[in-house]
Specification:
Layout lengths: L2 E7 L3 H12 L4 E4 L11 E4 L2 E4 L5 E2 L6 H8 L7 E3 L6 E5 L2 E5 L3 H11 L4 H16 L15 H4 L4 H8 L3 H8 L14 H13 L1 E4 L4 H13 L3 E3 L4 E7 L2 E7 L3 E10 L3 H6 L9 H8 L6 E9 L10 E5 L18 E6 L11 E8 L1 H4 L12 H18 L10 E7 L1 H8 L16 H4 L10 E3 L8 H17 L1 H8 L4
Parallel strand pairs: 1-2, 1-13, 2-10, 7-15, 13-19
Antiparallel strand pairs: 3-4, 5-9, 6-9, 7-8, 11-12, 12-13, 14-17, 14-18, 15-16, 16-17
Bound molecules: flavin-adenine dinucleotide.
Flavin-adenine dinucleotide (FAD) binds next to helix 1, helix 14 and helix 16.
């Protein structure tokens, strides 16, 4: 039986980054991916000339000196075709037909919004300064036990919603400041300040799209792993973890092929990971119960539009459109509710072209809305499902027409995806966009450490700590540190202490 130092379940961003870090440290690694394509949520798909992303639109903090820049330098991802979003407004938030712009740079961010909210200038400056401090202290996460006021440990136990109430007195401005967080599931009773502040801060620092799509990131990581002697296998679904005592001895995949490994890292959802353990005793039942009952964030309905040539000018910002008063209300499942919020994303066109070839419209969808088709497979979900998708797509396009009035006439082809599509193509739990929901009232229970009760089994990916490209990349280091020790990695990353 072939033996590796580390087997990694799943080739999402987290799995590949762990593979890259450990291969760089000289470990023999093997990444097993169940799908034909690597990348999990960062997969892309092509229709004609158009490349569509599944779960990636923009990243923040990629400018020199910012944290993602440091991480991506380590992963050799800086020379990909990154495309900076408009610094005067990387995001446009539209409430009841009026636009508000979120600008890059903390000072400009406050100044720009103060033009619409002059009476809140001081509060905006305080808000921006607070977020900046949270971001500046991000490297403290690499020093476990650090109790700094701006550290993850402190801010995971504070409410994002309460922070906004305390910091900003104008209710509309609070909505605008929350407007770029639609995919995050803004829940007043749960969302930790750390998640809200860290992600929003990274976008205020600088915001970037990737011309060509998120798959460029995962292909580059896989290339790096292979170059350093590692293995990345696709069509390799892990079916069992064979344990002896309190350790995984071997990993079984597909029809029973087995590989031995000293360590196993899982980038799959923690509940799925535990279901792979063959010996119930290997993970305490209290731990299993806890993980299995943790709620997940809502999913996304995405309308992928292939546009007629030269019809829709490319917008170098992300547009958010809201028809309701409170963006902190979408976390509630409201049966048959109409679509009243949308994110508009434009894939950067080739250099020199000024019109968008394709765009995506995203809106939140709860699992309950698609659960009646959960036992079906892609292409065989039935007429009622097709009608549901058509209606939702129409609502999304009508909402987007607020920004692009002639949109309907500019569409060449429409493709849609629901949380079921995400579940079946990216392997996310019930199609949840960001995985396990973090809860500031239960921070210790919902922010998971990489270590499991099984001695040599570790977790990684967006379900643990912070979601998104930034969060997953940080967590990959926490996971690998369980095997290599943190000091070593920190030195290579050049995180100042
Ligand atoms: C609609 C949407 C939009 C988003 N937009 C952004 C954005 O603009 N910016 C941003 O930073 N983030 C965004 N995100 C979030 C970001 O995509 C994720 O946080 C990140 O890609 C998650 O990576 P991961 O490694 O944790 O997991 P995943 O990408 O979920 O990867 C897990 C992998 O494990 C594999 N797997 C599972 N079980 C098995 C098994 N038994 N055997 C083998 N393989 C298995 C899966 O097939 C999958 O490839 C978005 C997400 C969604 C859904």
């Amino acid at each position: 039986m072939k033996q590796y130092d580390v087997i990694i379940i799943g080739s999402g961003l987290g799995g590949l980054e762990c593979g890259y870090i450990l291969a760089r440290k000289g470990y023999s690694v093997c990444v097993l991916e169940q799908n034909r394509q690597i990348g999990g949520c960062l997969q892309t798909f092509r229709r004609g000339d158009a490349v569509f992303d599944t779960g990636f639109h923009y990243v923040g903090g990629l400018d020199e000196g910012q944290f993602l820049h440091r991480l991506f330098r380590y992963f050799d991802l800086l020379d990909l075709p990154w495309h900076r979003l408009d610094e005067r407004g990387f995001a446009e938030i539209i409430f009841h037909g009026k636009s508000y712009f979120l600008a890059s740079g903390h000072r400009r961010f406050a100044d720009t919004l103060a033009e619409s909210f002059p009476h809140q200038r001081g509060r905006l400056e305080n808000y921006a300064a607070f977020l900046k401090q949270v971001g500046d202290n991000i490297s403290h996460s690499f020093q476990p036990g650090d109790k700094h006021a701006f550290s993850a440990e402190s801010l995971f136990s504070r409410s994002a919603w309460l922070f906004l109430q305390e910091t900003v007195s104008d209710p509309l401005l609070r909505q605008v400041l929350s407007g770029a967080s639609l995919t995050m599931e803004l829940c007043p009773e749960k969302l930790p300040l750390y998640v809200f502040a860290q992600i929003n801060n990274s976008f205020i620092q600088s915001a970037w799209r990737l011309r060509g799509g998120g798959a460029l990131i995962t292909e580059r990581l896989a290339e790096g792993i292979r170059r350093m002697g590692g293995t990345v296998l696709t069509d390799a679904k892990v079916t069992r973890l064979l344990t002896k005592g309190n350790a995984v001895q071997a990993v079984a995949y597909n029809r029973g092929e087995q590989l031995r490994s000293r360590y196993v890292i899982s980038d799959a959802h923690p509940a799925h990971t535990l279901s792979l353990l063959d010996e119930q005793a290997a993970a305490r039942s209290a731990y299993r119960n806890r993980i299995n009952h943790l709620p997940n964030t809502y999913g996304m309905f995405t309308v992928h539009l292939q546009l007629k040539r030269n019809t829709v000018p490319y917008l170098n910002r992300t547009v958010y459109i809201y028809k309701e008063e409170d963006v902190w209300n979408y976390y509630r499942y409201r049966p048959q509710a109409k679509t009243t919020a949308a994110l508009l994303h434009f894939q950067p066109p080739p250099p020199g072209e000024t019109c968008a070839g394709n765009m995506d419209i995203l809106t939140p969808v709860h699992w309950e809305e698609v659960v009646s088709w959960c036992d079906t497979t892609v292409g065989h979900r039935g007429e009622a499902y097709n009608r549901f998708k058509e209606q939702k797509a129409e609502e999304c396009i009508a909402l987007a027409a607020e920004k692009i009035p002639a949109l309907k006439q500019c569409i060449e082809k429409i493709y849609t995806s629901t949380p079921l599509t995400y579940r079946d193509y990216t392997g996310t739990w019930n199609g949840s966009a960001y995985g396990i929901q973090k809860d500031y009232t239960h921070a210790m229970l919902t922010v998971l450490p990489p270590q499991t009760p099984v001695a040599n089994l570790f977790l990684t990916g967006q379900n643990l700590n912070l979601h998104g490209v930034l969060g997953v990349s940080i967590t990959a280091f926490f996971t690998c540190a369980k095997i290599t020790g943190m000091e070593n990695l920190v030195k290579e990353l050049k995180v100042e202490s």
